[in-house]
Amino acid sequence: MQATALEGDGMGCHAGGEQLLSAAKAAGKSDILKQYAKDYPQDAKAGPHDQPQSMCPAFGALRVGLRMRRTATILSGSACCVYGLTFTSHFYGARRSVGYVPFNSETLVTGKLFEDIREAVHLQADPATLDAIVVINLCVPTASGVPLQLLPKEINGVRVIGIDVPGFGVPTHAEAKDVLAGAMLRYARHEIQSGPVQAPRGGVVDMPTVTLLGEMFPADPVGIAHLLAPMGLAAGPVVPTREWRELYAALDCVAVAAIHPFYTASVREFEAAGRPVVGSAPVGLDGTVSWLQAIGEAAGVAQDKIDLAKAQAAAAIKAVLSANAITGRITLSGYEGSELLVGRLLVECGADLKYVGTACPATRWNADDADWLRSKGVQVQFRASLEQDMAAVDEFRPDLAIGTTPVVQKAKQMSIPALYFTNLISARPLMGVAGAGSLVQVVQSAIGNRARFEAMTAFFENVGSGDTAGVWEDVPVAYPEFRIETRRQLDRAIKKRKAEEMG
Ligand code: SF4
Predict the structure, then answer these.
(1) Where among 438, 457, 476 does a domain terminate?
(2) Is 58 a pocket residue for ligand 1 (Cβ < 6 Å)?
(3) Is 12 in the pocket of ligand 1 (CB under 6 A)?
């Protein structure tokens, strides 16, 4: 194995992306990193994601693997990263063991780590219990060039999928889902090309299907199926799939709906299989009508059937929208990739939406959503940084801030009601008729909480913040000189380390 460019475990998100990136390139990972740079573009001006600003991106790929039946996942990375990732996956109810191949400076440098990974894969590959084993290289093994592509493609019928998911190459956990989903689709596509494959568990659907790209609330595929039915189409599997054989059914579709807009590698596989891919999603009235038109055209459905589907959906959605309305100014930010869709729905529900920030990039599958939102006067920020999301709250002083944990925290400190995007907004139906009805209640009742926040602020104000927060027996005394001294010592240590590195 090639000599590693990194020795040891002392690097991570905190070491800075540039250093890891150049180490990875030197260690033979240039091609994959170039592909990632194309698939998951980072805007140099606005881009804060040269290192993770939220959770470790690898969590996305880990979660996709952990949710699949008969699939084992093995992590290769620093112990601290693996601790964080397994903690988070169990917090989100993984109910599955995560495999780990530990390393030290010696095993990393000598190539023994790769041999250890190969041995672990062989030990796990039991076809009675597994369809696939996923091995994920985290930052340090990627930067050190651990060559997962040299693992056997299959052992006793168990497929082996090795992927690099470094924080310095894959900007968000959303896009890391695509890294694994794309690798699996690629594998499955080659299997289909080489011979017959397993049928879906529930049998082959006898109508042409539309594959849904992007994780969504379980009721949404059902709602989408209702929308598609008048066109003689059925909803196909959701990708990332929950089982290996669903990958074949996903590829066996008439069209793909890129509900989430960041699945670039997966789209590449669908396009290689000759499947047309349609962006946006059936959200709100405008969104549903134009999505049905685009899907119908992509699937070769006659215009009269498309018109029928549009008319039925429009009548039901109009009725729901006219019965409920949101009144209030809102800012919205998140890192799931569905932010623009939620934004569209909020606007159609009557909200005065001022800002949508998403950690995901602009792609051809969210271009129409961005145009639609901008035409309604909404500021859309792709690759939004936490600072930009916070600045939007400051600037627009909304009645409700929907966002990530730190945005919600900031809003609450300003007595502004706030909702977590991930837990409270993306965990409910958004599509079609159900979507139109579901948002209003949660948003409107959150907006109605403002008086409670103001009462809390009034009660707690002046009890201390920053260094003086907490319970004190005496009036707290600030010691700014301690802070200055610590800063001086840190600067000195950094200078010393740099001098050692150069020497
Ligand atoms: S693997 Fe994740 S947690 Fe570990 S250094 Fe990379 S980005 Fe950070």
Answers:
(1) 457
(2) yes
(3) yes
